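Sample A.
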Amino acid sequence: MCKSKFWLAFSSIEELGSGFVQRLFKHFGCIENAWTIAPSELVRVEGVTKKQVEYFLEKRKNINPDECFEYIEKKGIKYLTLEDEDYPRMLKEIHNPPTVLFIKGNLEDCNLGRTLAVVGSRRASCVAREVLNKILLEFEGTDLCVVSGLAAGIDTIAHKSALEAGLKTIGVIASGFEYCYPAANKKLYKDITDGNGAIVSEYWPTFEPLSFRFPQRNRIVSGLSYGTLIAEAAIKSGAMITANLTLEQNRELMCIPGAVSNPNTEGIYKLLKDGASIVTCADDILNTLEWTVSKPKSVKTTNFELEPMEQKIFNAIEIEPKSFDEILDLTGIEFGDLMSILTMLELKGIIKQIEGEKYASCVKI
């Protein structure tokens, strides 16, 4: 506690920045000294501005480190500081790592030696969602850990696919734990922290999810990971920011190709032209990262033959998901019969409904 309370006290000061804290820590060699040092000594720290010092001194007057420690303990929030042995090694290696990493769930259960960041568009296409789900399900039975930002779109699919595959997953949020953003992911937050991984943040529990915090959050997503997989990305997007951070951190960058006509693939093809690795299956990721893991389970195959009308439906959706009306037009099957057969195929695990009220194949015949 004696050291931790000062790290926590620093982190409770909004807009102070981890860089400022690290400069003080490096200069004085002790986090307690960095907190308690006289104002005259603070201005001598290299890289620290007068404005930053004045701001810190003003805030310090009203902060009690013991109360900060008691507050976090009472909230039941775990944390790691830069001085802790268990602080993630990959994250510590990046420029400006978080001075404190707040944790809910079980980070210790995640294999930090097999971390893959997955990011992409918040308005991802159905195809991108489906392909990403397929790739991550191929890792079922391995110890891979999926890291993402718990945002809408690709982030959500990444976490849900990891859970579906029985993988551990780490969600990095751009606010304190008193906020769930987006609100639609409240159940996903709970599913992750209930024994399936961890949610982490560098922000004090009361800090809001303000816009400038999302790019800051991205450096942690890529920083925790050996490589980053981009599913979809417009030229100007948070995913492209994460891609650039990945390269700055000297980590592997990978992309899932998509339709050239999709605006969300413009960033993907730029990254591929610039040298990012192309990914269409789990083995591509393993080869890029030079990982050897237990062989991913193959895609399920049926041990029975389809009836003629079932085969018609399967043929209609094998290449690309289709809506009910599209299947109706393509197969010529009567409305009532089609409803019944689709239900039976779902029960058999041959097809599934996906976002956009479409049906997709989930086996190879």
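Sample B.
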Amino acid sequence: MTIASPTSPSSGSGTASVAAPTSPLSSWTRKHLLGLEDLSAAEIMAILETAQSFAEISTRSRKKVPALQGRIVFNLFFENSTRTRTSFSLAAKRLSADTQDFSTSASSLSKGETFIDTAKNIEAMGADVMVVRHPTPGAPHLLAQHVKASVINAGDGAHEHPTQGLLDLMTIRKAKGRIEGLTVGLLGDIVHSRVARSNIWGLTKLGAHIILCGPPTLVPRSMERLGCEVANRLDDILPRCDVVNVLRIQFERQQVGLFPSVGEYSHFYMMTEERIRLARPDLLLLAPGPINRGVELTPEVADGRHSAILDQVTNGLAVRMAVLYLLSGKMEARTTQTN
């Protein structure tokens, strides 16, 4: 398979010329991306640097390279998604792969077919990559043990969401020029958040100090074992933060009421203009979608000068292109072995 360089200029009628990306495929040995917990700092940086190369493609008039031409990427989403599913589909198409979305409601799962049998049938149709979102923690890891295709975790329950963690890291790095030495606040429903866990692993490995903040029921002291500081008063920690990542209250994962009311939560933890004035002038504000305006942050803050929310979406496309691209080396190895 010929790999096109993400940084090569494309001609008016053809595709990009052939060259190696910023992070050579020869240095990437993983077949799957299941989480950031298992990645080294060097592997995380390899993805970020490759993603930075791919970010340039979105500025071209011709937004395609032939890196995954002839490959098939299946999106297996067992939970609803807007940004992640669309981003992976677009990332695969920009790499010239064929894509197919899997619909749970229209599948044989409703007839009793198992998750693994469904995946094996999809693999029999030629799937090279399976992008999996599932409400059960560990589902992508289980799938990776039963299929030859590469598996990418697009969110498994409250466990991890590695590409969201990576795009958050990319956004911070582009805005601040570094991650090491920064203080990053993760605010909100930490206990139910797969985004928080991926952020924790990634930020810690790259040298950031993390403060987890929210009500004690959503940020238990036991989370200090992950190497994070735990705080329950937002106003106290804001002056110390270089970055605040505002996480959504995940009502769908809560079995009981973990705070008296939405109004009380917003009173103590919503990012407002008044609270922004407590923070550093160059505070960077992140929020993985969907955002609940008027609950976790006000519209003025969400759309204000500190916000990088739409930058996260843009960077997510580059990150997912990079992940698919890096895994393509493992796809090539499998194809060579079977020919």
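B remarks: The radius of gyration is 20 Å. The first strand starts at residue 72 and ends at 77.
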